[in-house]
Each structure stands twice: as C-alpha cells, then as structure tokens.
Design brief:
It contains one helix and nine strands. It is α/β, with parallel strands linked by helices and 129 residues long. The protein has a domain at 33-122: Cupredoxins -  blue copper proteins (Immunoglobulin-like, Sandwich), CATH 2.60.40. A hairpin with a 2-residue loop joins strand 1 and strand 2 (43-45).
C-alpha cells in the first residue's frame, strides 16, 4: 500500500511539473493596440502608421465630413466604407515587414486620388503613433 501511495504522489508531481512547464512555454497573447484614423476631404490623420510584425491592431475609421473608405489590400484590409458620423473598427495583424499604402475606398470628390497614407511595418521595437 505504501508503494502505491509513493507511485501516486510521484505521478501527481510529474503531472504538475508538465503543466507548469507548458504554462511557462506559452507566450501571453499580445495586447491589441488601438488606433483611430479620421478621414476628411482629402486626407487621413494620421496618414502614417507604424506597426510591428505580429502585433494585432484595431483600427477605427471615423469620417468627419462625408462617406469615406479605407483599403490596404497588401495587408488584407478589403474595402471598408463608413458614413459621416459613424465609425467602423477592423483588425490587422501584419505578418511581413514593409511599407504599405492605404487609400480611400469610396469616391469622395475631386481630391479623392490624393487621399492616401502609409503603414510602416517593422520587426524591431520602433516608435509608435
């Protein structure tokens, strides 16, 4: 009987050690950063955003004067269109470093073609907006 207790205690200790090792190996999920972009004829503010590879970011688009849109196909952000007075939030988690152009996805007037910005994705710790 004593041998079975020792075996049970040893088995329990091994199980706890395995659970503790898994808990240490599991990286905590990165916090989701939040960025708000305002859109008005014919600009985004900010027009330059700095992100890191693997960093989840919620971007909220807030049109100020008319219906505007947002698209950045290279980062998998399809056409998002938002009416004046409303907002929409979408998530992006860049997987590759680079400089990616975003632009208005809804014709908003004669300056629409100039309504652009850039997302700079880096692999190292960099200043954020």
């Amino acid at each position: 009987m004593r041998g079975s207790r020792i075996a049970a205690v040893a088995l329990a200790a091994c199980a706890l050690a395995a659970i503790a090792a898994r808990a240490q190996d599991a990286a905590p999920a990165p916090a989701v950063r939040k960025i708000t972009i305002t859109a008005k004829k014919y600009e985004f503010s900010p027009s330059r955003i700095e992100l890191k590879v693997g960093e989840p970011v919620d971007i909220t688009l807030e049109p100020q004067d008319a219906t505007h849109g947002f698209t950045c196909k290279d980062l998998g952000i399809d056409k998002v269109v938002v009416e004046k007075g409303k907002s929409e939030t979408f998530r992006v988690t860049p997987q590759k470093a680079g400089i990616y152009e975003f632009k208005c996805a809804k014709w908003c007037g004669f300056g629409h073609g100039r309504m652009k910005g850039e997302i700079v994705v880096t692999t190292s710790e960099a200043p954020r907006n």
